[in-house]
Write a structure and sequence with these properties.
Largest sheet: 5 strands, parallel
Strand content: 5-15%
Structural class: alpha/beta
Number of domains: 3
Number of helices: 16
Length: 464
Amino acid sequence: MVRGAVQSSYDNAEIVLRVADIAFIALVLHGSLWLVGQSTTDMAFFLTTTALLYFQLGARFWNLYGSWQLLPLHEEARQLVIVWFAVLSALLATGFALHVTSDYSRLSLGLWALAVPACMLGLRAYLRHRVERNARRGVDIRILAFVGANRTAERIARHFQSRLWSGLRVAGVYDDRAVKRLNLQSLSLVGNIDGLVRDAREGKVDFVFITLPICAEHRIDQIVRELADATASVFLVPDAYIFERNHANWREVAGHPIISVYDSPFFGVNGLLKRIEDVVLSSLILLLISPLLLAIAAAVRLTSPGPALFKQRRYGLNGQVVEVWKFRSMTVAENGDSVVQATRGDRRVTPLGAFLRRTSLDELPQFFNVLQGRMSIVGPRPHAVAHNEQYRALIHGYMLRHKVKPGITGWAQINGWRGETDSVDKMERRVEYDMHYIRNWSLVMDLRIIAATAFKGFRGQNAY
C-alpha cells in the first residue's frame, strides 16, 4: 500500500478542476465559433470573461468544488448542471439588457452551452475512475479512523467502504471499551485511544472522525488536544439522532456553528426554485386541463344539488389555516370541528363523486391554490383541521410535516398511502413518508413524483 503520493493528487484535485473548468469555458467557446466560421472578436472576449465571472460566483454559492470526493457522481453532475444553467440564464439576461444577443451565432452558442458541461463531467468521471483504480491497487489512498463505536461511525464507514472513488480507506475504530461490549458490524476494533494518538503521530492515520456522544465533551477535548501533536485531519461528528429527526443542516450565528434540527428545506435558493417550479408547472397544467375543469364543474352541478367547488379549512405552511379547493364529491360539505373521513360505501359520496375521488380528479382545482401560494404541487397532503388536532396528540412529530407547504401529490401518495386512515398506524406510515420527502427533497425528486402521479396515478386501495 502506497500512501505518500496521494497527498499531492488528492489535495491538488480542486486546483485541477478549477483550472480545467476555466479552460473549458474559454477554449470551447472559441472552438465553437471557429467551427461555424465566426471570428473571435472583442464580443467573444466579453462573453468569455462574463461567463467566467458568473461561473465562479455560482460555483462558490453552490460549493461546487468543496465536495467533489464526498458526493456521488450523479449528485455532483446535478450540482454542475444547476450552476451552468444559472450561468446561462445570467448571460442571457445580460445579453438582452445590453442588446448584444444578435452579435453571436446561435449555433455556436448552442454547441458551447452543451459541450462545456459535458467536458466538465467527463473530467470529473475520469478523476473518480483514476482514484478508484488506484485505491483497488492500494495506491494513493488516505486512511480514515473513527473514535467511538456507534451508529454514526458505522453509517459513515459503510458510506466510504462502498465509494472507493473517495480515495479513503477505513482502518477501523479506536475505543477504550472491550470488543465484547461493542456491537461492531462494518467496523473492526483497531485499538484504544492511546493507540490512535500513537498511530496518528507516526503518520499511519490521515483522517480522524470523532463520533463520541456530545455528553463526552471532556473526553473529546482531551483527545483533540493529544491529536494536536500529529498531522492528521480531525473532525467532530455530531450524534446521528440529531440528523435523523428532520432536514438538519449547519448554520452560523455570531460566528458560532449551530445545527438546525427542525427546519424547512425551502429557504434561500431552494425556496425560490420550489416556487418557480410551482408557478411554471401549475400554469402549464391549468392551460392543458382547463376544458376538463369546465366539464367536471358542469357535471357536478348537473348530477347533484350544491356548488361545483368545495372549500375546506386545512393546515398549511407553519400550521397556518388555509382554504383548499376541491370539486364537490359529497352531498355534505363538512368543515367544522368534527369531520368524518369517507369510508367504503359511504352514502354521502355521490355516484360522480365516487369516480372523481377514485381517480383523484376532485383534486384538480388545487392547482389554483398552488398559484395563490397556499399549496405546492408536491408536498405532504393537507388534512382537515379536525384531523390534524386529533393526530398531533397521538403521533410524535406530526406537525413537522407542516414545515413545508401542503401538496397536491406527494411521496406518501405515490407509494400507496392515501385515502382513509382508520388507524394510527396508517397515519404514522403516511407521516413517515412525508418526513422522508422533507429530509431528501430535490427538484429531481419533485419531477419523479409528478411523473409517477401523471403516468401511474395514486396507488392505494383506501381512497373512497
